[in-house]
Amino acid sequence: MSQAQPRLRAAFSLGVTALLVMGLVASQWLLGDSPQQMQFDARLAPPSVDHWLGTDALGRELWARTLAGLALSFWVGCLAALLSTLIALSLAAIATLSARLDALVSLLIDTLLSVPHLILLMLIAFALGGGTQAVIIAVAVTHWPSLARVLRAELWQLRQAPYVRISRALGKSRWFVLHGHLLPHLIPHCLVGALLLFPHAILHEAALTFLGFGLSPSQPAIGVLLADAMRYLSGGYWWLGVFPGLGLLLMVLGFERLSSHLRRAL
Amino acid sequence: MRLIAPIAKRVARLALVLTCVALVSYGLMMASPIDPVDAYLGPQMAQVSPEQRALIAQRWGFDESVAVQFGHWLRQLVSGDLGWSHVYNQPVSEVIAQRFQRSIALLGSAWLISALVGFSLGVVAGAKEGSKLDNIISTYAFITASTPAFWLAILAVLLFSVTLGWTPTCCAGPAGALNQEVTLATRLHHLLLPVATLALLGIASITLHTRTRMLELMRSDVATHAFAQGASRLDVAWRHGLRHASVPAITLAFASLGELFGGSILIEQVFAYPGLGQATVAAGLRSDVPLLLGIALFTALFVSVGNMIADSLYGVIDPRIKASGL
Amino acid sequence: MLTIDQLSLQLPLYASWWKRDWATCLDEFSLTVFPGEVHAVVGASGAGKSLLAYAIMGLLPTPARLNGQLYYQGKPLNASRQRQLRGRELALIPQSLSALDPLVRTQRQVTWAAQRAGQPSAHAWHASQQALDHYQLDARAQQAYAHELSGGMARRVLTAMAHVSQAKLVIADEPSVGLDPHQRQRVLDALRELANQGKSVILITHHLRHALPIADRVTIMRDGKLVETAPACAFQDSGASLTNAYSQALWLALPDNAFATTAISRREQEAHVA
To answer: Which of A148, A153, A224, B190 has the lowest CB atom count within 10 Å?
Structure first.
């Protein structure tokens, strides 16, 4: 296995991840509203053949809720990672325009990096009043600095590169330089960067929701499920605490693997 | 003399960054749609007449323009007054001082353990690349790096407190006991599981980072040359590896203080440990703006100093950078 | 001392998404080195010279296919014997100056080399001192870090590390690269001196001209294959005693021989330039 082609492995794990994600998205469509369906005669039922992962205090199926939570996490993570990459790219581009703007951007980066992520997330979620939008924006706004640093360094280096300078001296348009020389270098960085951000985004979304600053408690988010489970911990209702987190771990792990394979292949 | 100029530069930068943090976090607080009077009143919101609301707004300056309020807050800040926390009914600086004292035991021991254990595991894994031990260590680090901190804490409570009953489920001491009555042993007993959980999570990043450094070294010209001299892998790892991996590991340990603090917020929440992290959550959920601002500034200071130490360490330890006077 | 018999080496090459090909780096290469001689191995970049050095030391990257036999002092030199003899009987002076650990002072590195060669630590310190003195590295250079050394000094430190191990076979990989004529002479003289003490020296270089003054015999390599092994004295005048057209052309193309390129076909010129 270790002898296998890095690109082959990347393609394989990309395929597997895509399949799982498709399954996850399709399951939401098939599940309908069963994550919210209450069964009054099966409250806090342990895992069994009838209730695969057990039920919660209102008799809702945990497996349906976990799947729904993962799908929710996936969408929030996707949007946040995408938004974050866009912010990183645009600020890195702005930083290369002039020395003063560069100083300003790096001050902004230092500022954001000096506050612990989670506290910054809480501040932003607080400022936006909570809810799905707030979480997505908060996660996007806090996760771009590391990628922006990479892109900024790359852009500076590219601007100094002889072929870019020659291209300019030859009178090629700005657009041509950007399109022909800069973007082909930046796109792989952005792609890997976004993929690296994604698992972090998911984890931070779940943490924020768990603490009560994120998605609304009426949504079946993983953070909500686990915060719920906290109240039943000492009662021995272990399944409430174990399965949603396990699902989240597996999803994050899958994406981490994918991104590490992709990094090696590119 | 040569050392003074860079240090002064760093301190100036630190002051600048902290000012920006103050500006940004104050801006965020002001942007919040949550009404400050409602937040101040909490559940008593319904019992208050409009006149009383106006009085409250006047007393705490909520009715003034944002710029005036910010100026007022900044002036207080410079004179050392962080404001009043309405959740704890105490000055913010006192809340932070008390809570941080409890958190530092948790943070400090978890930090030390994760740095030491993480570094050792990373060195071993990197030196024995591809071995069974390396596989176990890497897999462990890879998995814990992706584990949600609060979930791990929940699992720990489920296993050790609820099922096995080895450790208490909550708090920094027995419920109802006064602070002075709690013995050191009891304190440590309550601290054990939170510290273990936090350390377990912190180990992963340092292990992975150190392992990467070791692999880089083991494939470098330095290692090939050492092998050509007849050195064993152990010899190369011990003589060259430790030197090359230790500076990045120490740097990472200082640079990851923010991450550690974030983890401690989640873990304090799960274990109901009354530290600074729990206070942060309470301040956020109950809109205690002065406390939230104070904590943001305090943690920014804490993290920035960590980053500063991390940056400076390279210059002190690595002879290549020492020579160029950076 | 050392005999290389029909050595072939293949390294993996990722040709496409699925396939892994093997690139032939050494092709049935044979060579014998005697005690007390400097044996120059000359070839263009990519001819497989450095890989030859690594193959002798047993330091090839792991997925490698090696065929053929190595003999050291009459006995087969296999992986376990290589491990035993490395640093004690076999020494490598690496091509890259980055082989010096940037975080360790010079003398300590030389001492480590002595310890790895099996000398007791009390003696190793003394031996390293002697070796460094021998190569005219003063007290400042002995306490210096690698980045504080000039190219010539670093090269002499690497030579001292091979010297202190008292190995009987020393392989010097491109020791004259990047040095001014004076420094280059010092380094090459040091190698000659090792041979004069009865050791064998394999001098790997792409500069035929640098190798000739100190070499006893010269092996020309090309694309992993042996072109010709000839005594150093064969490289004079028109090189008439050289049997192979490529080695003849290589000799005639030197600046002293008026860059005569008529003998080289276009393809061979390219190969040489590349």
So the answer is: A153
